[in-house]
Amino acid sequence: MAASDRLDIPSDRHEASPQTPDAAAAGVVSADDKVVRKATVAGTVGSFVEWYDYGIYGLLVTYLAVNIMGNADSGGLFLTNLGFLISFLARPFGSVICGYLGDKLGRKRLLATLLVLISAATAALGLIPSRATIGIAAPVLLVLLRILQGFSAGGEVAGAMSFVGEYAPDKRRNFMMSFIAVGSFVALLFGSTLSAVLITALGDDAMTSWAWRVPFLVAVPLGYVGFYIRSRLEETPHFVALREQKTVARNPLREALTSKRHLKAIALTIFLPALNGPGYYLLFVYMPTYLKTSLGDHNFSMVRALLVTASSLVAIVICIPLMARLSDRIGRKPVLAVSAVAMAVVSYPMFLLITTGRFGLACLGTVVLAIAFSGHAAVVHTMLAEMFPTSVRYSAYSIGFSISTVIFGGSAPLVMTDLIESTGSNLIPAFASIITAVITLVTVAFLRETKGRPLEAH
Prior knowledge:
The N terminus is likely disordered. This protein has one domain: MFS general substrate transporter like domains (Growth Hormone, Chain: A, Up-down Bundle). The protein is mainly α. The protein contains 23 helices and no strands. The radius of gyration is 21 Å and the shape is globular. The longest helix has 32 residues.
């Protein structure tokens, strides 16, 4: 790709982004529309692969409990969900190391490498012999591979969002970045659909015996496609400007963690995505397990549980770009605030519908929750990326978001399973959603609006 194709000064066909003195001093120029689209496609495809790999663990956790832990009772499920939590505990380590490398060496190569790591770990999960075959080595291997997945995912989110955000024009940044979120939900939809098709075609017995491995092995071709697309793109114009001006941070981690301004932003990055835990991991990743195992006499079959989840995934995939475009027009804060209020208001009545055990009502409940959550899903990562300058964006964003995910997301399946078991209440997820929505809403009040602002260099 020629340099003229990579970094074109906006012509009359491409609106120039206003620049702060900081950005102008760094020599930042906007990429043309064609390059922005390529970057967005690369970010979206990469997000699809990463979150397909990461998400199917939650979708197939009951089969893992049987094969890797030896049983599907509450104890086996508890241990399998512990594997879910362990991967999140590994995320801060991935965020620190990958954030440092991303801010020091650039985004592009690191993101391609992370895609290979998580795809290889996912495929290996599908190759683990059962506990009946290799004993305790089976859960040990699962834990080790989940650590590798968590490490990779810890560096992925902030890196992919920074990559696309640093290509996107200021006035359409949220819309362009929203397709990364769309990619993650389409990945879960694909995983849900594939799992439902396999169960329907082969039967639950075959799925329990061997077919549960198939969705994990699909990570191999998906990972190759994602790596190919990502590896062919150039570095972002904002990072290239830092490198050309020799202003890349010597130690981005130290710079991020010793600045009061950055530390305040990192604190906001921990609490603003609080709603993301119940919103993403409970509504879409944990939901099939919840419907199949936690509703007592109203338990769904796995196929019906996956179809309920799929209906909510379709709804949020449609809504996210609309919410992002709205954010580019009226601001990030109003969309985030309304979404948090909506989740706080509808969570309890919608979970009442879900717990009836009726398929239609469950679909209605999850779809309404997905629509309410879509504003948060569409905007939160753009807001986080815009809070930090290019010199420390990858590092600071990764650290804050990974800590947030450990607190509010990674423990969700484990905590929900345990609380539902101990209290006997199927509405525990609704209360988790309400509490985290309030935390997000309070945090929004401390944010500075970033709509339409150029990204800072330092």
